[in-house]
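Re: the 154-residue chain
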Amino acid sequence: YVGGVAGYSGYLDVFDSQVEGKLTNNGQYTGGLSGYYSGGKYNRVYSNVAVNGVDNIHINALFGYSYFSQVEDDSFKDVYWNSELSGKTYSSYYYIGSSNEEGNADSSNPIAGKHLSLEEIKNETTYEDWDFTSIWKFENNGPKLREELHSISN
């Protein structure tokens, strides 16, 4: 499992987070945020990641694979990805245990984040509920976390 925030995110809550870069996996389950998602909340998250995999099985923009026992309305709020950089139009491949439903999640699916064009990324009004006073800053190429608050580097 390979992801920008976590390889496997089981009941992990992520708020006000940004991921940038390139992810490549020689195996399965790769996502800009998490390779495998099985619960938790993602709110005000921006993924600006190119996602690639050798076998292209469960390689998606946000989550390689998502398992839900049932879908909760507040699992994903204001979660966006750069569709042009990621090269992906699906946020995840998903399975919902309570209804035995599965498929590819895109922006029309309520369990998915929203893919953005470059024009939408560069428009501050896209990010309605984001705090651009103390948590985020807006630059000409999109939102950025204020480095003094949350920067993590390797």
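The mean pLDDT is 85.
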